[in-house]
# Entry
Amino acid sequence: MAESVSYLLAYVCKAHRGKGQELLALAGLHPGQEMLLHRLWAGDGIPQSELAGDLGVSPATTTKMLDRMAKAGLLERRIDSDDQRVSRVYLTSEGWSLQETVAAIWNELEEISLANLTGDERILLRRLLLQVLANLE
# Structure
């Protein structure tokens, strides 16, 4: 089993996530929060339910993430003026200010992860990972 590609891929994912968690913690973020921020940087003011779908996580997980991030001052929820049942999510100035920090963290994580690979190897790895992802979706 330890020689299988699936085992190695799982182990790489675990190590990558751990290093990412370590780097994100330096910015006061928890794993997954950077993905939520990234989605909101593309356009905030979206319904909370849509955000859960975009991130591929449960509504309960989204609520917990939003609660933690609102408490940290990164975002706020506002009731939709047209539909009181809908809660929309907006970034605060502090949430917007993390764009460069998160980009730097992801760049550092990529450089750490791919440090010993040539440019051609990086391109090949990306292509192969995209194929594996397509197979799993």
Q: What stands out?
A: The chain is about 65% helix and 10% strand. The beta strands are 46-47, 75-79, 87-91.
